[in-house]
Amino acid sequence: MHEQMEERLVALRKDFEAGQARLKQLETEQTYLRETLLRISGAIQVLEELKAADQQPAEKLKEAAAARV
What we know:
- The protein is an all-alpha fold.
- Helix content is 97%, strand content 0%.
- It is rod-shaped.
C-alpha cells in the first residue's frame, strides 16, 4: 500500500510540474498576443486619424466650390 501511494505521489508531482510549465507557456503566449493586439489597435487608430485628416481638406474644397456657385 505504501509503495502504491509513493508511486501515485510521484505521478501527481510530475503532472503538477507539467501543468505549471504549460500554464507558464500559456501566460507567455497571452502576453505576446495582448502586445500584438495593442500594436494593431494603435496602427488602426493612426490610419483612421490619417484618413480623417485626408478627408477634411477635400470636404472644405467641396464646400468652397458649392459656395461659389
